Amino acid sequence: MKRVEEWVDVVVVGAGHAGCEAALACARLGMETILFTVSADSIAMMPCNPNIGGSSKGHLVREVDALGGEMGKNIDRTFIQSKMLNLSKGPAVHSLRAQADKAEYSRSMRKVLQETEHLKIRQMEVTELIVEDGTLTGVRTYSGAVYHCRACILCTGTYLKARCIYGDVSTYTGPNGLQAANYLTDSLKANGVKMYRFKTGTPARIDGRSIDFSKMQEQKGDERVVPFSFETDPASVQIPQVSCWLTYTNEDTHRIIRENLDRSPLYSGMIEGTGPRYCPSIEDKVVKFADKDRHQVFIEPEGVHTNEMYVGGMSSSLPEDVQLAMYRSVAGLEHADIVRNAYAIEYDCIDARQLDLSLEFRNIRGLFSAGQFNGSSGYEEAAAQGIIAGINAARKIQGKEPLILDRSEAYIGVLIDDLVTKENHEPYRMMTSRAEYRLLLRQDNADLRLTPKGYEVGLISEERYQRLLEKERMIQEETKRVKKTSVGTEEEVQEFLRSQESTELRSSARLSELISRPELSYQKLSVIDRERKELPEEVQEQVNINIKYEGYLQRQLKQVEQFKKMEARKIPQDIDYDKVPSLRTEARQKLKECRPSSIGQASRIAGVSPADVSLLMIYIR
Amino acid sequence: MQGDTIAAISSAAADSGIGIVRISGPDSFAVIDRIYRPKKGSRKLSEKKSHTIHYGYIMDGGDVVDEVLVMIMRGPGTFTAEDTVEIDCHGGVCAMRKILETVIKNGARPAQPGEFTRRAFLNGRIDLSQAEAVMDVIQSKNEYALKNSVSQLKGSVRKEITELRGQILYHTAYIEAALDDPEHISLDGYKEKIEDEITEIGEKIRRLISTADNGCILKEGIRTVIVGRPNAGKSSVLNALLGEERAIVTEVAGTTRDTLEETINLNGITLIITDTAGIRETEDIVEKIGIGRAREKLENADLVLYVADSSEKLDENDAAVIRMLRDKKGIVLLNKSDLETVTTREMIEAMIEREDEKAEEADGDSCGENPPEEEDAGKPNSRRKRVPEYPVISISALEGTGIDLLEEKLKEMFYQGELSQDNEVCITNMRHKALLMDAAESLERVRESISLGMPEDFLTIDLMGACEALGEITGETASEDMINEIFGKFCLGK
To answer: What is this model's ipTM?
Structure first.
């Protein structure tokens, strides 16, 4: 029988948020790329919450953008509400979050893919990996076609052997009733890949016409919207925004849930996968936090052209009748009509410790993976891994060293290092507390941190790079200037200080000293700073942060120096841990599983003690 | 971590003629310059020629810590191949510790077990054929240190540190949870709320640190108390051990009216020996005070040497002593073997057994009135029976016979781990102290940040620092604990 047989550079499996970034990166770097999806109508679909960004996830989006990715630009084009979170806190935890028009987001991303050179979209299930001598050489599809390739990136999300469950009803489909991918797991296992089974869930979608918004608090977007992408013109995102709505569960809701717990598949043992603790179902919350008499519920629109509303905070896998009763017990939802039921979803993913920091499989060269397949959760986490896997697949083909961001350079670095180093028993979500150098890894300086790398890789245009260099120069010069320039005790200065409720000067002081006062800032000092040139807002912001938090930043920089020393001590990839004398058995075991690339990475493995690290250092010398 | 500057006492941690504190790393000379004052002249040591010895003082601010000889050696011609400074001080654990502390205050950090050796190896000073031996040393030293560290941190101190860490972790997790999910968790007023508590935790940590300073002499050895009825020869035993006449020895019963304390070294084991007043019913007020102190000392002792008089019959006073010894590690010294034997080993053992039985009955009666203070699994058991039984050694303190047997016995008990420095109320480990100081400093910075009006996310950076330092003492890691605390205590999420 004749079969289709094609030759490409890169095969990307899955067109979610990881797959899109991976395919775009490869194609933009000149690789002939083919992107497989089970549904070409569902590219960059958002099967759960309708937002992009949020605490620490907003950082990831900014970083993806700074490297030359698409997510930031796409949400800037399709958002319907936007907020900068944590504005009352320090600059390191400011975080953008936007509500997306889901359909528009998907459509817009598809358009970008379709307009990208070297990139083809193909609706087809990939069923088998073709591996020869530990190297991936191609994939086979359900139809029997063979696509020979030089690298493949798996971004299968929650589709592998997916099963959706609520009550005693379960369907063997991916999210939203889409076709599951039921064959690839077996092929992976046959090639020695260790798989996990994870679980996550989503709340119901409710018909907007059936909701009484007058019983809820309105949640508006920011008056002045900040775009995600460093390339988006801020003027273009000042658009009319939609509102979200806040309401609460109550004792009645909790009673309904408690009375029906025995019918929950989570508690009856029907679900075997491990669920995330940070995204608990409402039944989990009611059981675990029994002392709380109410939980917040956010009603969020799914788009402009639909009246479906997402019920944030109430994901569930309870039976349909209980869901209906439970939602209807909430203020404003008394007459709610459900459009789509809440459900839990189980899926296969991998133990990501089988990957290198480049996201390539250690034992199947040429095979990369990204996103939920790697045990993470979230659109942003997926996109972040996607762009790195894409870049590294392309670089491998080009014969170049992989791009690896470390923990001191980016949240992306923290994310990937955590995934491939630590044993992970639940879907991994990014959090600011995971980033030990977070004062340096701010969303406002993602471009300064990463755009030079994106340029080097080839995803950032010359023009954008030059603009960045110019910005850097302005920041440096201005920071220097305010450290040198003094103001005296003249009445104008004192008057200004009084107006800001700041202590008057006894003798002259440098501008930088005034900026570091809590009640003042670089921007405020413009009144008394005569020589100041007109500078772009983002430059002013950097100068202000540099001066205001200088002590803290210096301290973190020092810690980073120490950190880098340990990261620089590489462990040879062919090391035989059985030959390292005196290691404790547990340490030996963990080291074998993770095969860290550096002493620094080894020291982060749970179960490897400082003494074991010493032994390793001695052995590899 | 390679590349920073480390310090440690590198002579045996027991009393010896000379103690050596060694510093190694790039800042070695900077550290010694900060704390060294020469006897004559004023040139900095860092400007002196390599491999030279200098005579002067180690200073802590304006105070002289000790008179020392300092050897400075530039890398790579040193053991570690790094710049190295060795401070020879008067032996004595206390002096060495003070110097090490001063060194650490001025920029070095306490070395990890085996770290000098590791550096020597990594810098090519030991060749590869020795690698395996080096590794074994590191692993075993580490195990020893770990065991030692845990045994030095029992009971109340460990509990307190764990509690303090728990409080800090809770607040850190609360703030982090709020940063991650600002719409669910509000931080309004939280800074004000925790300010007092942070201050209080800081004070508690400083109090722990101060126990390390006050307890210095007391804690660096096995606290040994000599007890017995009057004139059984306790002071003679002490003198025999000391090898000199320090305690007043007369034939009048009740000569030692207060307690005397001496530090001695037997086969490398440091004993801090307290001679006590004889225990007997007395009307003499001064003597009564002495007996009271003896009881107090006994409470805190790691080891009891019970001196009985073999030339006389056991009496009520002996029984009283035996009753006081319950639950204590001890050795019975049957003294005056040079005289005619009236009391034999068997007679003493019989008396111990009798007293135990009586006490057991009494325990049954008073049960509930005196519940055990610590939840120590070993204790209830030892209340039933004396474990291990007291070895009995026959000696003559006067003629010095049998003392060698006592030394052997002590050595045996120590190396079999029966004797340890079980100091529940004090911080005794240098590393623990340095970590507590780190934690206190971190909390100080938290307070500073609050007073400067810094946003909450700046506070957690130093709160985490404090958690990490305390966790290193108790053996817990901060990052995973934090994530667990966030998920466990606070309800987040979609």
So the answer is: 0.89
